[in-house]
Amino acid sequence: MVFVRKIFALLLLIGWLIGGLTVAYAQHTNVPLALSAKVEGGDEDMSITLIFDRKVDMVPQLLNHPWRLVLDFERLGFGFEIDQKDWSGFASDMRWGDMSDVNSRIIFEMDKPFRIAEIKAQENKGNDTFSLVLSLKQSDSDTFNAAMIDNMRTNAVVQRDTKSDRLGVSAKPVVSKKFTVVLDPGHGGIDSGAVGRHQTLEKEIVLAFAKELKARFDAEGNVEAILTRDSDVFIPLNDRVQFARQSNADLFISIHADSIRENYVRGATVYTISDKASDSVAASIAESENRADEIGGINFADEPEDVADILVDLARRETLGFSVQFARLAVSKLQEETKMINNPHRHAGFRVLRAPDVPSVLIELGYLSNAEDEKQLTQASWRAKIVNQIAESVSRFAELSGRRLSVANEKE
Q: Domain of 59?
């Protein structure tokens, strides 16, 4: 009994410390702290109650496929854990995270179409907290879709004004005279990506790798390496593409470590873009990656497409040639140091590779669904070898493509 009491006391202490650290972090960064979330109701109506440590402003959005309630805030700290066993109503899932350095988002997935009947915001003077209570009622698909479109129109100006803030780095990157490679660590923020058998998160692995690769380029000084994100933030796919173009990039490398059903499949893979997938694995990976915006609560259907004229088509073809050239170089170098998947250069319709004027590849370092790959991905010594091989591939590509490799050789 004494032992049980000691364990109970220890657990209380740990909980108190964790809660205290979370609150301290929020206070230190001067952002509001989300304290709790409660979901209750029945099949026809339900309510969501969110408690914060201070007043917050919120903008709601509706998205379908699946039906979602998206709540946008300025940057929040998150101090709650959600036990869905206590839920009632027609909400099926909840996730939350940072969309950028200045914005956060909470998303509720629903089992059926719905409408927002009422939103109440109130200060709770008794305990110095702030509540948001959203009352939802069951609806039908047509009514939901009409409300969603109306909501998009209402928020259109706000979305255009704040779009540049999504990026984890400067929205107006400095154009370098050096050969420029944009390194894109996949996922981030609310989108964790794949999760390994030992709970390794893809978003953390690829960010660490991208930083190590950038450090290698920075140390050598002949390649300008820019990260699409250098922290745990969410960036929509289209913004990653646009950032590479705004940076006048000579090469775009999206870095991933996905998960697939066939857990026996392992090894690195290099992907280029194609309307038709080279195989079922490539198709599955592309489909998964292209859902990143959905996971982050972004409706990408209204994203503008590039002008489909003859000049754009010619640019795409030339760019694809460069992309394939780099993919072959990367495969050749990578297979010197690590296991590769069968037919390691594959292709599929990855949205993040669609820039018409920037050679682009997606590199799967390995698959977190495979135990051996997961172990490898967490080893700094293995990552260092792969960093070296990719860096050498980039340097060789710059030479072959006639791009600028060093400012020292330029005539000012």
A: 31-154
